[in-house]
Amino acid sequence: MHIPTKQRLSAPPAVLLPPNRTSNLAWGLAQMSGISHACSAVWWTDHLGVNENCKSDTVCAQMSNQHSYEAPQQWKGPAELVLAASVARRYYIEGLSKTEIADEYGLSRFKIARLLETARSQGLVRIEISHPGTIDVELSVLLRQTFRLEHSIVVDTHEDEAASLRKQLGRAAADLLTEVLTPTDVLGLAWARTVSSMATQLRRLPTIPVVQLTGALSRLSGSSSSIDDSSIDVVREAARISGGPAYLFFAPLLVPNSATALALRQQPDVARAFSKFPSVTTAVAGIGQWAPGQSTLYDAATDSERRALVRQGVCADIGGVFLAEDGTPLQTELNDRMVGISATQLKGIPEVIGIPYGDGKLQATLAALRSGLVHSLVTHAALATALLEAGSLSVQTAVETPG
Question: Which domain does 295 fall in, by range?
Fold first, then answer.
């Protein structure tokens, strides 16, 4: 018979357990997972001869008297087994401290600790960390440790359709911002389809300034082109949620020549937003692979511009910053014609959260991680697994190659 106790997590890591009767549960989660946030968990406790229901907002325990008993070597006998089960129930499910349990049973705290330790080692208490299908906790931890990330959120999904992936990652990124941003932060947003999806799913932010980091991309409409104002909408929506000031500007990201770009950067609204770049503490950007359908900037460029950047070794782009495969920022002819944040300015931001998706962006994401410009990732399980495999291979190659 089992005593299932479940605490659900439907978004990026957040401590959901109240800090009183279930504090032992939250502490146990943090200790086992090795991460700073308690994750979704299922706790199972075998319990002898008890029929009782115990329910609350965070705990639902059901007990049964169906139990086949074989005394393990570590138990003195069935009486100690029943005592250990009762102590485990008090500690793991009811949230009593070891001192409180010791006082209740007239035993030493050391004896209670030994009973709890033996209960776990003998399978009387089984602890399992799980998730309900939204966040893959194990992959998130491995990705963060492998690439030394500030934050790593891996969405557990088998979805491979781009629009659906953007929506799921956008939701996770929105929840992450809600969790980590403080009233002292300044948020910077570089337009990308995932960033746009994130902005539409924001529900709560502290009252902070929101800064536009890139101009808008031009899109073709028949024989003419128009400016996609999504980048302005992204900043406006985030500022609406936060209630803070919005530093936005109406200008294209890519213009025909460097003189036009220089003139636009000197316009009051653009200059005002650019002056806020040094104060940005957290930025969110997409990661594009320099290939068809893998980068909005690639798709907006002409064929000759695409080929020219391929010859220069461009592998990826982050908010208009071009990267080589080894992560080195590259200065291209397009940079002089762009209205947006530079590699130097992006490097000055303490935390940049990248939101890559799709198996086709493996090399671009690796380049972004190697560049040191990206400090956190929100991605999905398939790409996270590929990144871990590539990261392990890189470590192995470095070890095998003599220095």
Answer: 137-400
